[in-house]
């Protein structure tokens, strides 16, 4: 066979392996460094924006319970603002993490001297793909920057999506069964003590409702409207309620109060005996089958702990004309209207942690831009230029050396591989990816799907009596008493920063998993495109794609291996998945409001204190 002499495309001294062990000053117009520059710029801009927004929030709105209240008012407006803010947060985090990923791949790319050293030891390094195995062979300075960039990503995944969160407004309310005679009486009647809230509180609530009705400040709701208004997880715009029934015309028989009076209060966190009560089971009243076993009104809550009030399944919503409470037909309701107090909060501790991590990332990327002078083999084109200019003596004569011949556990040398015939065969893109990488990504994805399915089944199971289609009626990013996840170790006393951080860590764990899947997919696709680029040279004559000193027909590029038509959709899909995860599993904070104009600290101390779900 006639020997072919290859003319080096780039014969500068910097391609000499002996020169790779010293740093050389590269011009700033190298394309891969331009990518590092853009990564540093994007990360710095996000850091400055985070800092400005945080300072503005606390200077403008002050701080309460370690958080700034960005907005207080309508719960619908709060929900929409929360969705929009989290969309922006995930765009910011995607910009930071994409720049960090780009920088980390550059740092883990080997120089020619590092490749030669590895070959001399009988092993190999990855070129053109994200690599962890390269970390054992690269310079210590690049290794430490790579590790710090990786570690700094963890706080962003775990906390960034919870820096802004909502506080729902839940009204604690009393429900009175009464009649027209009580409404038209000259004075209110003192309701018998329910035993749980004290005689003074019960009397004051009774008098308030009577006076409010006399003043005409109560809103009349027909049975169907009353059910729709109060059959909700959290009541934020309404308070104490009068249920006007027939079957009795004597004012002396009026004024019965449910022992399960605070329909808006449910046990959502706590100790070993934490339960998840249905917050509007009083509506079902006579429809709950278990009530026949609990004749005493003081035991009604026992029944309501075990039987779910489904106003649709029990036919109450669709047949309001047959709605009865305590064997009395409901004619209409008189409802107290209240202001909504839903809030959008920015937590100071989490914001400080995010800004500090963001600053560290920006500093590390800027350090990489100014300090990295080595000629890195970032892609297939860079490797081809280097090895054509200065052939490797270890692999010389092994032109048909394949991936299968160089395994992580097998050392190789030039004497290990003799001449062999060439067999042309079509291979799928998947063949370019190592078996370990393939198993890792599919196993992680499968486990994630299993866990998501388990959580969906858990939530569906808690929606007792609900149909699968009812899941969509819950609303996007909306909390429900049926889908709350409670932990015995997270107690009510941790209602401030400590409790919030504990819940944030739990809620944002899926963000870490999604990021691992994203980086695995990125490495997976990068490996396939690198193999495709290598194989394409056998079919089409074209200039090499290089990242350093393009010569002649060579093409300069700043992206590493994934062109924008692949990387841009991946970044967008990753941001969308992170956003969806933030709206699927999230921290719920609730402030309970007691609609009684008495000393709440004495009688309902928990009424206005926020509890962290």
UniProtKB/TrEMBL annotation:
DUF6536 domain location is 32-183
Pfam family name, one: DUF6536
InterPro entries linked to this entry:
DUF6536
| Protein name as it appears in the record | DUF6536 domain-containing protein
Species of the source:
Alternaria arborescens
On the tree of life, the source organism's domain of life is: Eukaryota
* Polar residues composition-biased segments: 1-17
Annotated transmembrane regions:
36-59, 143-160, 348-370, 438-461
